[in-house]
Design brief:
Layout lengths: L7 E2 L12 H6 L9 H13 L1 E3 L5 H6 L14 E3 L4 H8 L10 H16 L7 H16 L2 E3 L9 E2 L23 H5 L13 H12 L4 H11 L11 H17 L3 H13 L13 E2 L3 E2 L3 H16 L4 H27 L15 E2 L10 H27 L7 H6 L2 H10 L3 E2 L7 E2 L3 H11 L4 E4 H12 L1 E2 L2 H12 L12 H9 L3 E3 L5 E5 L1
Length: 522
């Protein structure tokens, strides 16, 4: 067992604690099974969009800070300054939330807020017209709800499609305490729970941000893949990659939502008294990651840049970015586990030293590739489980400690892989790796530069060299050898027509002949 206590980044945010969950020590602070795909992306964009700092600063100092919309984080960075968006959530979500989550003072505040907005509407409108206008705005904003479930209104989240929809987690303790005013109750809102925005998005942000620091290990690590022909399509000039990716993310948040931003600004400025006091200067502490995700972060940054540059709608980009974030979580957990696992075998053509064999989602139980896909998922789970037990043994953990460990490791891997359809079925036997049409589209837009095309077999090879997902040819032979933990020269007759069909459904496959097909990112 090696490299358990890897050096953390940023170092200023890391506190050594012998009682810390070992999964958090190993994988970073933190991946959690309860965090949803949309909240991974929302949190990632929230940190990107927010100002960052090495220390807590005054309001005036924060105004001078120029680190928003950037990956500008250093070893000494510890804080970022996210907005609460509480006035916007009160207006948009309160009336749709569960009755038993609404405190009477918030009910009164909501009614007062509606009156205030009505008073600020265009002069000359009747009371009925003002009410209709306010209701229309409310319904419009509620239409962009990302996560609601059975939560309190303040913990709802918006779809992360515009800057005003990016807000930190604000929880309400459901106190039965009586309050005279909104301001009295505002003191009891909690900003440090991380129940839903569980820091997973922060960790993904830091994986990319670390790439753009001057750490000496980055260049030497990337040299391991820079000369490999399979990675020549990537941007290895890190300053260029940083600038392009920052610009692409800024453009994503700006595109097509100018009028929506104006509405949000109107609501938030009118209802500013319902924000948490001094919200502009309410800092949040950055997460930490081990400095071992250099290649994973590099691939993630390139994939995100390709996806953002693709000529698809903003909403589809948001949908696919969520899936990409989840794939990055899964890739990170597996790559980190194989770094530590001394019993793990290597994979010559994939840096992560693991392989996932996927099958046609409709493959029967007699299908040989389906059986391999089932074994592939079982082995991946086994590795994560085994690594946590091995580390736990060294740390003298008790049996009861592993419940929390699994919540941040094996439970994440299992739940999130099912969440994006990479593993089916949700419950029961025969759980296996598959590719859905949506995941196949994601691979096209994230692995092929916009406006270019490559051969189908090259596309399938890229899926393997980025994610360790084996579909045919040499990749699946290597995956079988890794899975069986011995060399295997058997040749399988692999049918990839189901992948081609998924590409055809999206209009991304060009068939030149019976033998040659081209995958196109328009």
């Amino acid at each position: 067992m090696t490299d358990i206590n890897a050096i953390q980044f940023p170092s200023a945010s890391f506190k050594a604690d012998s009682k810390t969950n070992i999964a958090i020590q190993v994988y970073g602070r933190r991946f959690l099974a309860d965090q949803t795909p949309i909240e991974y992306l929302s949190e990632f964009l929230l940190v990107f969009h927010s100002k960052k700092s090495e220390k807590k600063v005054t309001t005036d100092e924060l105004k001078m800070n120029q680190s928003e919309n950037s990956f500008n984080v250093s070893e000494d960075s510890r804080y970022y300054f996210p907005k609460s968006r509480l006035p916007l959530k009160l207006f948009s979500f309160f009336s749709q939330s569960k009755l038993d989550t609404r405190h009477p003072i918030h009910q009164q505040s909501f009614l007062d807020a509606l009156d205030e907005l009505g008073a600020k509407t265009q002069r000359g409108l009747s009371d009925a017209e003002k009410n209709n206008l306010v209701n229309t705005l409310q319904n419009l904003l509620y239409g962009f709800v990302g996560i609601a479930n059975n939560r309190t209104w303040s913990t709802y989240s918006f779809m992360p499609i515009t800057p005003s929809f990016l807000g930190r987690e604000v929880t309400w303790p459901h106190s039965s305490k009586e309050y005279g005013t909104w301001s009295d109750s505002a003191e009891d809102f909690q900003l440090d729970r991380h129940n839903f925005m569980a820091r997973g998005g922060e960790a993904l942000f830091l994986q990319i941000a670390f790439l753009f620091t001057n750490d000496m290990a980055i260049k030497s690590t990337l040299q391991k893949i820079e000369q490999n022909a399979a990675y020549q399509h990537l941007e290895f000039n890190l300053p260029n990659l940083k600038q392009k990716l920052e610009n692409a993310l800024i453009q994503l948040l700006k595109d097509e939502t100018h009028q929506l931003e104006e509405i949000c600004h109107f609501v938030e400025s009118t209802l500013s008294e319902y924000d948490i006091e001094d919200n502009d200067n309410r800092s949040a502490t950055l997460a930490t990651i081990p400095k071992s995700y250099i290649i994973e972060g590099f691939l993630f940054a390139n994939e995100m840049l390709n996806l953002l540059s693709s000529k698809i709608s903003k909403l589809e980009k948001i949908e696919l970015l969520q899936q990409l974030c989840v794939l990055q979580v899964l890739r990170s957990i597996m790559a980190r586990s194989t770094q530590i696992d001394q019993n793990n075998h290597t994979t010559e053509n994939y840096h992560g030293n693991y392989a996932w064999i996927v099958c046609n989602p409709s493959a029967t139980t007699k299908d040989n590739v389906r059986k391999l896909a089932e074994s592939s998922f079982s082995k991946s789970e086994e590795i994560v489980y085994r690594v946590m037990r091995s580390v736990g043994k060294e740390k003298n953990l008790k049996s009861s400690d592993y419940r929390q460990v699994d919540k941040h490791s094996s439970d994440v891997f299992r739940r999130m892989s099912k969440n994006i359809g990479l593993v089916i079925p949700q419950k029961g036997s025969g759980q296996r790796f598959v590719l859905t049409p949506s995941l196949i589209r994601l691979f096209v837009y994230s692995l092929i530069e916009s406006g270019t095309r490559i051969k189908l077999n090259d596309f399938l090879s890229r899926i393997y060299t980025h994610f360790g997902i084996a579909i045919e040819g040499q990749q699946i032979q290597e995956a079988i050898a890794w899975q069986l933990e011995r060399n295997d020269d058997s040749v399988l007759n692999i049918d990839v027509s189901w992948v081609e069909e998924g590409l055809k459904q999206s209009g991304l496959l060009i068939e030149l002949s019976d033998a040659i097909s081209i995958v196109n990112n328009p």
